[in-house]
Amino acid sequence: MLALVAVLLANADGRSGIALSRLVGVRGDRRVTVGIAFGAFIVNAAVAATAGALANQMIGQGIAALLVTLAMLSAAVALLWPLKPVGDARADDASTIMFAGRMLANQFGDRSHFLIAALAATSGAGQWAAAGGLIGWTLSMLPFLAFGPALAERRAARNLRWAAAMILVLWGLRTALGAFGLIG
């Protein structure tokens, strides 16, 4: 559940939804494009969850909590970073295999996967962190897939982005204070 909420908040800016919406509009194979995007997310989430579960066995809970703090704060910074539309002309007309490879590489190390790995490191339940992350990522993309990229420029979307960043900052600071034993 934590991964669902964290990834949903971390993707409140809609970058993934805007990129997928643009790709679906440009590429002729819409179902394949969506399937590849979800497949790439699932593969990277499984890698992140496995890494987090392995880290759980090797590091202490205090270090894992600091890793969560770093993931939360970096996700908040990414939310507040100016949103620039990125067009990838090579992905627009690439073959299916090349497109799949590009999607895997582009999503590797994404803030969602960093959060999944960090949250899996706290509990060791990587599969649940990956499943929650996938649900959160999907829910964050739905408005932008339904209403298009122009939704991100509306005042309400900007306010939501700022609110999500503030929640992530507070959550990260609370986690860091708990890791140092300053709060219970």
Describe this structure in words.
There is one protein chain. By secondary structure, the chain is mainly α. It has 9 helices and no strands. The chain has helices at 2-10, 15-26, 30-58, 61-80, 89-92, 96-107, 111-123, 126-147, 155-179.
Straight-line distance between termini: 21 Å
Please compute the radius of gyration using only Cα atoms: 17 Å
Going by helix content, strand content and strand pairing, the class is mainly alpha
**Uncertain residue segments:** none
Question: Can you give keywords for this protein?
Answer:
184 residues, mainly alpha, 9 helices, globular
Quick rundown:
This protein has helices at residues 2-10, 15-26, 30-58, 61-80, 89-92, 96-107, 111-123, 126-147, 155-179. With 184 residues, the chain is mainly α.
Annotate the secondary structure layout:
Elements: H1 2-10, H2 15-26, H3 30-58, H4 61-80, H5 89-92, H6 96-107, H7 111-123, H8 126-147, H9 155-179
